[in-house]
Every structure is written in C-alpha cells, then in structure tokens.
Amino acid sequence: MTHPAADPPPPPREAVGPLIRSLSVLRALSASGGRQAVGDLVRATGLARSTVDRVLSTLARLGHVRVEGRDAVLAPGLLELGNAYLAASELPDRLAPAADRLADALDESVSLAVPDGDGVRFVHQATRRRAMSLAFRIGDLLPAERGAVGALFAADWDEDAWLRWRQRRAADPTDAGFPAVPPRRDEDAGTEQRGSVAEFTSRVEAARTAGWSLDDQLIEPGLVAVAMPVRDSRGRPVCAVSVVSHTSRLTAEELPAAVLPQLRETVAEMEKSLAAPPPPTSTSLPDPSPTRHASWTRASKQELGPEFVESLARGLLTLTAFGTGRAALPLTTVAEATGLARATARRALLTLEHLGYLTSDGRLFRPTPKVLELGFAPLSGLSLPDIAQPHLAALVERVHDSASMAVLSGTDIRYVARVPTVRIMSVNITVGTRFPAYPTSMGRVLLADLPPAERTAHLAQTDLVPLTRHTVTSPDRLATILEQTHHDGYALVDEELEEGLRSIAVPVRDRHARVVAAVNISTHAGHRSPTETRDTLLPHLRTTAARIEADLHTAGRYLRVPIA
User: Fold this and answer.
1) H or E stretch including 403?
2) Confidence tier at 284 by pLDDT (50, 70, 90)
3) Which GO terms describe its molecular function (predicted)?
4) Which helix (H) or strand (E) holds 223?
5) How much is the pTM?
6) Overall number of domains in the chain
C-alpha cells in the first residue's frame, strides 16, 4: 500500500493516463491481500466497472492475475516485476547467503531492508518461526519510526525528507497506511509516546552515534531487534541487516551484547561482497520471454481488442527490462530490450518515474523498492500446492478426468493438491492421503529421479505387496520400470493400485531442475486403451506441468516456496 503523504505532484505532460489508472487497480488488489471482489476494486479505485474489467483482462493475459468467479486474485507471474527490482539491486543475490548464515548461527530471524521514502521495505527474510512473533514478508513496508532499521536510514535524511516524514505522520497518526504493522493507537500518537517525533529523533541521534539501532517492542509487545547499516564502497548505506528476537528469549537489554559481535562480522562480510566486482553477466537484454517484447503485446491487442490495455502491458514490460547487470538503463537500451518505439518507451518510463517505481538522474533509469508493492508481499506466502491448484483445475476442465499433485514422503507419496471429477476409486482421495510409491504413477516419477543407489535402497526398504493382480512387486522389474520412467519422463500405471484405475504422471522440477513433485491424471481403465491414454492425456499433462514449473521458477527466484 502507498502510505499517506503530501499531495503528489501532478503527472508530467508525457505521462500515460491509462497506465496510471491501471496500476491503481493492481495496487488496490495488492493492498487487499491479493484477493478482492471486482466490485470492491471498482469502489476502491473509483474507476468505471468497464475500465477495471479491461485492466483485469490485461493482467490475466500477462499471467499476473486470475479472475475466479466474482474475485480477482493475484497470480505468481506478477512476481517477475519484483524479481526485476531485486535482481537489479543485487542485494539478495550478494547478501542473502551471509544473512542466512547469521540466522543459523544465532538461531534468530534475520532481515535485509532498504529505505523506501520515509519507510523501510524488506528485501530478504531468514525467518525462525517463534510463538508470539510477528512475521514480515519480502515487500512489506514499515514506517521508519516503527523499528530499528528506520532510525539508521533517517540518520542520513535531509530537511526535505524530515518534512515529508512529519507530513505523513500528521496525515496518518495510527499507521493505517502500513498494513504490515499493527495500527498505532490514537492515544500513542502524542509527542511523549513511543514512536513520536521527539522519541524517533532521539533514537536517530543514538543510532548515528553508536552505528547500530535498537528496537524495543516498537512494532508489537515482545518483539525486539538490533540493526546495523550495510554501506557501499563510498560509505553510503544501501540496506540494513537486523536480528529479530522475542523478549521470552532475550530482553532488549540483553540482545545487543548477544548478537552484535556476530552481526558486525556479518556486516563486514556483506560490505566486502558489495565491493567485489559483479559476476560476468549480460547487460543488454533481459531473459527471453514471449511476454517481454512489444510484438507480443501487439499480438495480444489484435486478439483481445478493447479488452487488452496495451499501455499497461507496455509499462510493465519496461520494468522487466531491468535485472541482474541491468540496474541502470538509458532509454535507448530499454527500447531495444522491449521492442518498444523509443517515444513509447520514454512515456512509459516517465510515467513509472512519476509513480515512484523508477528513479532517474536525467539519463539512466533505475527501479526502486516501491516496485515490490505490486503484489510481492501477498504472493510471498505461496506454496507449491497453491501454485499448482489453478493449473490442475484448468487441466480437469480440458480432459474431464481427476488431476492431482503429490510429493515423496518416505516410501509413500502424499497428496498435496487435487481436483476431482467423478469418483472412480473406492477410496476417497483428499489432500494428505498417502499411498505406497511403487504402484503409483506419481510415485514412480518421483522415484525415477533418485540416483540409482537411492532407488535400490528405497525398494529394499519397501514392503512390496500386491495390491491387485496387476501390481508389480519384483524389485528387479521395478528397477527396470523406474529406469525407463527416468528416460521417458513420464509413468503410466495400469490397475496396479486399484482394479479399474489407470493413471499417468509427469515430474515437476524446480529452478535447479530437481524433481520436487509429480502431477497426474487418473482415469477409468475402460475409457480407452493404455496407448490411447498416453497419446490423449500426456500432452495436456506436460503442458500443465510446464505452466506449474514456470510459476514455481518465478516464485522461487527470491522466495522460499514450501513444497507442501
């Protein structure tokens, strides 16, 4: 959510009005938590229903939103915008490993945050789940005065920055514009209260003197933190690393002594990493994607007509031009990378700069942390089953058979997502249902990805009992089947788990090409022959797996995506 401040300046003459209006819909949907009735979006934005419908149609085409009945829902593809900023900043890529090691060493949560206006925004989280602890997400925005990190950044504010902060505090005394934090009570907004102007100014001075800052339950009771700035080679703070604990473990008085020695070592390591030359990478064009070129937006406009807001697609396209090795780009490079006409790219860039998603020195444009407000935090809680479910539902609509996803759990498979049609089994399969891996299509796909020695050990640990007269129980024959499955990339199992049931499965791979799950289609054995089943269903199944993988790879770029 964009927090209250002084009245924004009027848009420049070159600004693209439809892009400004369209992004207000995306911001409203993000601020609602990622799901909102379309009618509520109309009321939240003040736009006509027809305008909101066209914006949602465009975002759906881009893979950024789904429309489910009366609701609009953020989709994993939207994360590519935040990924572009995070990759361009290089902060998670360079600093997250050290933050993760610090979290392991201290057994406490560790965060990386950057300044964003008069707030701070998280760009990495190494979280330790604790009882009575508030968990923040990548992309969440906090008021500067509600934490240790903000005092560090405010130490470098000029008078204009302090004025903007005071104006925001006056306009929003309860922090209602910051949904990531509990609202401040009206009675706490006085000048002598915690988080007040006087108290925050005092903490800023203390942080400037000490070189670190303490949060003594500023966000919620029990939550304490210590933070230090991470500076670039010119001494400028580019981010801050904070260690977060709870008073049930360490009090605010105990926390600095407990964590500062290792925190200082980590900050020194991070600053050394920032000073090192960047790894070699392309600086000209972004990663290839059919939706990242103007030819795709033109084709979509021709196909969808007025239901496709091309100016919105072009604006988002310019954001994806940034990335690793492409932190700052001139207009010419953005136009080349996106295929947009130079004048079109310029108008989009100036509009995004006006909205705060880009900054410019007059020649080079850079993405800002505000890009993360476009859905990154709501989508950061996605699990693999969350990602898979809508794709499985679309698959079932196409093939009219049940579809599922499962993961390997010991010698069993465990269902983590399922979309049923007509019930064809005597047992009721739900999320959490377990079956032995060896007589199931998904189990064989998952076992086939194991190294040969692990496959052999797995079969040796499994009680290979016949579940039907067709069940393969010979270890040697199963080993041969698994090797063939590995070669073919799919498994078809015919009446081995239950009489009359046939299923076909393919693997789902993560960004590192590791098989993390399997998806299948279950059908009645009497509907068609095994060969017809393979020829009819396998192409649909592989397409679905590829779509799940695309979303998983986008989400997994900077997020930890739970498999189940």
Assistant:
1) strand 402-409
2) very low
3) DNA binding; DNA-binding transcription factor activity
4) strand 223-231
5) 0.92
6) 3
